[in-house]
Amino acid sequence: MAVVISGTVKYGGAYAVKGKDGSEKLMVSFTVFDEIGNTFSCQMWPDDPQHAVLVQAIAQMRRQPVQVVVAGFSARLREFKDKVPGPGDAVRNGRVVDVSANFIVTQVHFPNYPDLFTPRPAATV
Length: 125
Hints:
By secondary structure, the protein is mainly β. The chain contains one helix and six strands; from the N terminus they run E-E-E-H-E-E-E. The chain has one helix at about 50-55, and strands at about 5-20, 25-35, 40-45, 65-80, 90, 95-110. It has a five-stranded mixed β-barrel with strand order 1-2-3-6-4. The longest helix is centred in the middle third of the chain and has 7 residues, at about 50-55. The chain is globular, with a radius of gyration of 17 Å.
């Protein structure tokens, strides 16, 4: 059984990320919100077969319905360096903190673009 996120793309892009070994990889990052307003931070890495196509398309997918399968996730306590603590904020070492989750996704499907990931024949001359 897989965990599936269905919603609408809020925004997204492809970003160069440096690895611990100094190498640079292109990560696709986008945020999906569902029908009740929950947001999901989604990422796709170059080892996914859809990565090359999604790198080119994600910036144009704002406000498009999407469905993704969760391949993995991580949760961490995120510190905000410049945020002034307010009522109800959790504070650690004088900094506002919040739990953040990132979802590694695969099998991305945009219903309004059913052929987006369909292989196309090579051009012939």
